[in-house]
Write a structure and sequence with these properties.
The chain is of the alpha/beta class. The chain folds into two domains: 51 residues, Signal recognition particle alu RNA binding heterodimer, srp9/1, CATH 3.30.720; 84 residues, 2,3-Dihydroxybiphenyl 1,2-Dioxygenase, domain 1 (Roll). 26% of the residues are buried.
């Protein structure tokens, strides 16, 4: 059996708000309560949201989606008036990227976790891509 990531616990101020946000934005089934967790199934992996008091250490979650799914998700981001960026440093506000000759965008969830949707895996365009991923471009120089 190949090793797979089964689940990841995500800290939230309000687990239901955060789980609902993710499932609605990505167009996934509603969260399921599993003990103290609000679980959102993303492919083979569950993101289990749990309430946490105090400061939350923000994380980054990237989701590989098809071109059609990107359009649907990006439409929901814009409909909600969410701020989005082309880069993880949040410098290119209101833009998307074309890294690896695909599409990508970053946005925050209600807890400040940085979410990303991409249509091509990092580096999949290699150095031959019209728009190579910055990691690949930096390694080439």
């Amino acid at each position: 059996m190949a090793i797979q990531l089964n689940h990841h616990i995500v800290s939230a101020r309000d687990k239901m708000e955060s789980a609902n946000f993710l499932s609605e934005i990505l167009g996934l089934p509603a969260p399921v309560m599993a003990g103290p967790f609000a679980a959102v199934q993303v492919g083979e992996t569950a993101l289990d949201f749990r309430d946490r008091d105090g400061e939350i250490t923000t994380q980054h979650y990237a989701f590989l989606v098809s071109d059609a799914e990107f359009e649907e998700i990006f439409g929901r981001i814009r409909e909600r008036g969410l701020t989005y960026w082309a880069d993880p440093g949040r410098k290119k506000v209101g833009e998307t990227n074309a890294w690896d000759d695909g599409r990508g965008v970053y946005f925050d969830d209600p807890n400040g976790h940085l979410l990303e949707i991409i249509t091509r895996p990092y580096g999949s365009g290699g150095t031959e891509a019209k728009n190579p991923h910055p990691f690949v471009a930096a390694a080439k120089s």
